[in-house]
Amino acid sequence: MIRTPQEIAKMRKAGKVVAEMHEATRLAVKPGVSTLDLDKVARNVLEKRGARSNFLNYHGFPAVICTSPNSMIVHGIPGDYILQEGDIISIDCGAIVEGYHGDAAYTMGVGNISPEAEKLIEVTERSLYAGIEKMQPGNRLHEIGRAVQKVAESAGYGIVREYVGHAIGTAMHEEPQVPNYWPGNGGPKLKVGNVFAVEPMLNIGGDKTKVLSDGWSVVTLDGSLSAHFEHTIAISENGPEILTIP
Ligand code: MG
Ligand code: MG
């Protein structure tokens, strides 16, 4: 899908709200805080900015953010889990402004964390930016995943395959998908006006996942730590424009 400059302008607004949700939740993350508290912080941002949530009621999802601690990869439901010193927490946020969507995620430590956890977070974020660098008009879509994979594999991490990035616009999840690995072909050519959410999920251990009995929470099968970084990015004539920044 090619988005017009007017549509991209609306997605920029949605992206700024998502960035503000990141800032507010980052400030709130500390030992003793519940994941439901973080959802309230994010709701306040949506309310203040007059934005709608794209997560709330998505296939029945009950919150405006996903909170996924430690070995949880994605889609954790905010609730009574209390953050502990040494945890890592992945927070995925989304917003709709004037009918256009933004979607972005980050992982951070709670207080002091282990060097292994620190490295996982650093490498996962770096893999996202390696992917973003490939978002030049004329490049092939799957070069993004190839770049993510190179960074992840150099650290020996598992790359989650069941959950991937996606095009985004008037819906949160549009076609095509954006894998975080080389799927064996280049995929479609990137064009000015394309907008994608790129979102590597890396595990210290293997790449296998399972869904918990709540029907949402995805965890690593081997119990290893997992991190998740995501931005919504438009392809412009000058290359990638990250929309989910302040
Ligand atoms: Mg997301
Ligand atoms: Mg996404």
Task: Provide a compact summary of the structure.
With 246 residues, this protein is an alpha+beta fold. The chain has helices at residues 5-28, 35-49, 115-133, 143-154, and strands at residues 65-69, 72-74, 88-97, 100-109, 158-159, 165-167, 174-178, 195-198, 201-203, 209-211, 218-220, 226-228, 231-236, 239-242. The chain contains four helices and 14 strands.
Q: Biggest sheet, strands in spatial order?
A: 7-6-8-13-14
Q: What percentage of residues falls in helices of 4 or more residues?
A: 25-40%
Structural classification: alpha+beta
User: Mind telling me which CATH architecture this is?
Assistant: Alpha-Beta Complex
Low-confidence stretches: none
Number of domains: 1
Calculate Rg over CA atoms: 17 Å
Q: What's the mean pLDDT score?
A: 98
Say which CATH homologous superfamily is assigned: Creatinase/methionine aminopeptidase superfamily
CATH class: Alpha Beta
Q: Which hetero ligands occur in this complex?
A: magnesium ion
Summed up, the helix count is 4
Distance between the termini: 25 Å
Beta-strand segment tally: 14
Shape: globular
Series of H and E elements: HHEEEEHHEEEEEEEEEE
Largest sheet: 5 strands, antiparallel
Strand content: 25-35%
CATH topology: Creatine Amidinohydrolase
Description:
This protein is an alpha+beta fold and 246 residues long. It has one domain: Creatinase/methionine aminopeptidase superfamily (Creatine Amidinohydrolase). It contains 4 helices and 14 strands. It has helices spanning 5-28, 35-49, 115-133, 143-154; strands at 65-69, 72-74, 88-97, 100-109, 158-159, 165-167, 174-178, 195-198, 201-203, 209-211, 218-220, 226-228, 231-236, 239-242. The strands form 4 sheets. The protein has a 5-stranded antiparallel sheet with strand order 7-6-8-13-14. Strands 1-3-4 form a 3-stranded antiparallel sheet. Strands 2-11-10 form a 3-stranded antiparallel sheet, with no helix packed on it. A hairpin with a 2-residue loop joins β3 and β4. α3 packs antiparallel against α4. The longest helix has 24 residues, at 5-28. It is globular and about 45 Å long. The two termini are 25 Å apart. The mean pLDDT is 98. Residues 92, 94, 103, 105, 199, 230 line the site of one magnesium ion. One magnesium ion is lined by residues 103, 166, 197, 199, 230.
